[in-house]
Amino acid sequence: MSEHRITDSLPTGTTVLGADEIIINMGPQHPSTHGVLRVKLKLDGERIVDSECIIGYLHRGVEKIAEHRSYQQFAPYVDRMDYVAAVSNGLGYCEAVEKLLGAEAPIRARVVRTILTELQRIASHLLWLGTHALDIGALTPLFYCFREREEILKIFEKYCGARLTTHAFRIGGLQYETYDGFEAEVKRFCTDFEHRMNEYEELLTENRIWVGRTKGVGILNSADAIALGVTGPVLRASGVQWDIRKAMPYAAYDLYKFEIPTRPTGDTFDRYIVRIEEMRQSRLICLQAIENIPTGPIMARIGKVLKPPPGEVYHGIEAPKGELGYYIVSDGTTQPYRVRVRPPSFINLQAFDKMARGSLVADVVAIIGTIDIVLGEVDR
Amino acid sequence: MNSRMLEEIQPFILPVIYAVVIVAVLPLLAGYIVLLERKVMAHMQARMGPMRVGPHGLLQPIADAVKLLLKEDIIPDKADKLLFWLAPLGSVTMALLAYAALPLGPTFQIADLDVGLLFILAVSSLGIYGIVLGGWASNSHYSLLGALRSAAQLVSYETAAGLALVSGLLLGGSLSMKALVEAQDQIGVWFIFLVPISFFIYMVASIAETNRAPFDLPEAESELVAGYMTEYSGFRWSLYFLAEYANMIVVSGIATTLFLGGWLRPLASVHQHLGLPFEALDILPALIFLGLAAWCAKLAMRQAVPVQKMVMFLFVGLFVVLAGAMAWSLTSPLMAGIHGAFWFIVKVLVYLYGFLWFRFTFPRYRFDQLMKLGWQFLIPLALVNLLMVAIGLLLHQHFGWWLLWTVILSNGLTLLFAAWLGSENAKPSSTEAEALAAASGGK
Mean pLDDT lowest for which of A342-346, B313-317, B434-438? Predict the structure, then answer.
């Protein structure tokens, strides 16, 4: 009788675990995978030999829905993708359709859009900071971050009636004028925010444990970052100075002075610093914009029924998590022929394996946190 | 029952009563420590904490306990049933057993063992069996990883903690917990002022031993869900929980006894040195309870619901009764015992507050960093510290140096060593440097 090994009966190409290796499933129900991400880790002791992200648990077919809705009807749906940065999603979509129509929102609308989008960037980064710190074990920053975020959400609520999925903008401009006291409230938030930021940094940036947990963890060098198509703070932390707000200005970003923070190493600590600095820059943009909001109409003359000429358009914006792009194909009817979204979370998540391999289990949560994914956007 | 038998069992009556009191009161106390923890956490995090069950959440621990008792008890299909069943019992038994040798006051102690400290250390280390067996018996990866982490962590940090305690033993010259406190009474200073570095080492190591943040890796909820307790639910889970809090009180008790003067009142010997005729500070316990009663009364007036108001006033009454007891015992022969227990509990609570404070301030260490801190920093530091304390003691006892000079000398030298060790550890090791270079090579 010939010797029969158990591996013979397996299909070819099946990998067999070594004796010391175990496979661990993190998620889809796991406290720190930020939603329904499932990560399959192959571990040697506590060291990661291999990893695989399994996604799709939150797939809702958003892109397909677009083909059965008119251009205006689809706008609220995009809020549900990156649901912690709905305003940015809406901005990208509205501007893409405007580009397709060959229209442009009036300057007043563009400035208000810029202010709200920057506030949304701060809110999104605050949520990231809180949850990231929580993953690494610092319980308290989460509540401070939520306290600040609450202020921003209150501004959103006063402006458009919704806090999370705002649908703040309309194709062609804005639906609502800013409310009385809008400028004062944004200004007050920005003034308070500066020293609050410093307080959070005191808790974390110089904390030895925090530095130890983040420095040298999940390194992504610039070549890999570009090759993987990573964008946003993750890319900038790897030393690439790329920000669509500067490279291809949209909304009213060309009117304001701001800097693009970059860091050389591309580890978790650098990504943390980059996002912290981005919040500061966003605050500066808001302060500049609020000083002088131009008067005038808030809606372009585009008509009630949108029938863009046949053709296609790609428009990308710098969402809090990276480049958020909309590729829209029009066949000349009231409904888009195809909408394809380039979600920053989905593409940034590709870098996970590169960052995680060789690190420890404890680093996985730090790395997932540092990519700053939102599963609604990854799965769409 | 004849009188001879009565005589025989007489010495056991008091200890048995003490034991029953400890086993009965401790779970309740642990529940209220949890409430305290949640309240402290909430106030540090700009929120309210439990407010619904009872006024200011005062009945929350009871509600939690009832909930845990009534919960479905789930045993995973593939678990090792017997061990799964036994493990939490082992943990909680060992945690409670340690109280046998812990003196809560000069008279309130179940057994004054000659090797009291060794007994407590040995028994509380046995508690790890409950964790490892529980993690293994659950037959789950998270549990197993949590259990292994816990075992490795406990073994590493027990060394440092033990070495730190030895310097206290050198000063006290005994292993009996009671004798250690009495030694501090005689010298007139608590050992924390003579060997602050030992206290610091013990504090860090005790947090690690009890698996509390920032060393709570075995149950790091963001990584291992709940570590060794992942598969446990209901009452079994609460046994682990109880064991964790009981252990916290035990390590606080050890630290209090050895470094913070046990049941001694702060500034116990001041009146002797200043020539004061009375011990004015002995009124403090009664005043503290009166203050608490007044505070509760203030809060009670603000309660909108009559039932809540009543519960709050019950607490007012409780504190008034306690204040009365404290005042009454000033003139009674029981004074030393009751006031001793009061100060002991206050010191334990202060030490526990440190635990909570750290937990809400610091992020969590990574496992390799934890090991590095233990083996490459705390243990060498504890060794050098022990040597320095011994040299200082020798200079004081045999060469007649003034105690203050020897303390400054030995602690100063140890601090210098700590600074050097810290800078040495901050440099990345050769393998780490290589890994960093390899990772950033593609630039």
Answer: B434-438
Q: Is A320 helix (H, G, I), strand (E, B) or coil?
A: coil
CA A123 vs. chain centroid, Å, equals 11
pLDDT of A70 over the 70 cut? yes
Cβ burial, residue B420 (10 Å; 0-12/13-18/19+):
exposed
Query: What was the pLDDT predicted at B278?
Result: 55
User: Domain check: are B208 and B312 in the same one?
Assistant: no
Range of the domain at A44: 6-54
The beta-carbon contacts of A199-205 under 8 Å, at least 24 apart in sequence, are: A199/A144, A200/A129, A200/A141, A200/A144, A200/A145, A200/A276, A201/A276, A203/A138, A203/A140, A203/A141, A203/B361, A204/A133, A204/A138, A204/A141, A204/A272, A204/B363, A205/A272, A205/A273, A205/A276
Q: What is the pLDDT of residues B60-110, one digit of tens each?
A: 888 888 888 888 877 777 777 788 888 888 888 888 888 888 887 777 777
CA-closest candidate to residue A24, choices A45, A43, A3, A7: A43
The alpha carbon of residue A34 is apart from the nearest alpha carbon of chain B, in Å, by 10
Domain assignment present for residue B269? The answer is no
- Among B222, B435, B443, the residue with its CB nearest the CB of A223 is B443
Q: Based on the fold, state whether residues A334 and A364 are members of the same structural domain.
A: yes
Peptide bond before residue A28 is cis, with ω within 30 degrees of 0: yes
Q: Are residues A22 and A152 in the same domain?
A: no
Q: Which residues of B touch A137 (CB under 8 A)?
A: 213-214, 216, 220, 222, 362-365
Q: Which residues fall within 8 angstroms of residue B415, CB to CB, at 6 or more apart?
A: B197
| Same-domain pairing of A85 and A43 | no
Amino acid letter for position B69: L
The interface residues of chain B toward chain A in range 187-226, judged by CB-CB distance below 8 A, are 213-214, 216-217, 220-225
State how far the Cα of B222 lies from the Cα of B329, in Å rounded to an integer: 49
Whether residue B319 is found in the same domain as residue B253: no
* Cα-based distances in Å from B122 to B127, B131, B240, B241, B383: 9, 16, 19, 20, 21
Does any CB of chain A come closer than 8 Å to the CB of residue B142? Answer: yes
pLDDT, tens digit, 9 for 90 and up, residues B371-429: 888 888 888 888 888 888 888 888 887 777 777 777 787 788 888 888 888 777 776 65
Euclidean distance between CA atoms B304 and B127, whole angstroms: 46
ipTM entry: 0.71
How far does the CA of residue A194 sit from the closest CA of chain B (Å)? 19
The closest CB to that of A136, out of B361, B364, B442, belongs to B364
Q: Which structural domain, as residue segments, surrounds residue B309? A: 280-331
- Distances in Å between the Cα of B439 and the Cα atoms of A49, A149, A226, A356, B431 are 16, 36, 16, 12, 12
Q: Do both B57 and B81 map to the same domain?
A: no
**Which residue has tokens 């921003």?**
A152
Domain count, chain B: 3
pTM: 0.79
A21 and A109 both lie in a single domain: no
**Between chain A and chain B, how many beta carbons pairs sit less than 8 Å apart?**
103
Residue of A47, A146, A219, A268 best to disrupt the B interface, most CBs of B under 10 A:
A219
The string of DSSP codes covering A76-94 is HHHTTTSTTSHHHHHHHHH
Looking at the complex, does the CB of residue B259 fall below 8 Å from at least one CB of chain A?
A: no
Q: For residue B365, list chain A residues with Cβ-Cβ distance below 8 A.
A: 137, 209, 212-213
Residues B12 and B104 in one domain: no
Separation of alpha carbons A156 and A163, rounded Å: 6
Rounded to whole angstroms, the Cα distance separating A349 from B124 reads: 45
- Same domain flag for A44 and A122: no
Task: Pull the structure tokens for residue B380.
Answer: 């060498």
Specify if A143 maps to a domain. yes
d(CA A278, CA A45): 37
Would you call B332 an interface residue with chain A, using a CB distance cutoff of 8 Å? no
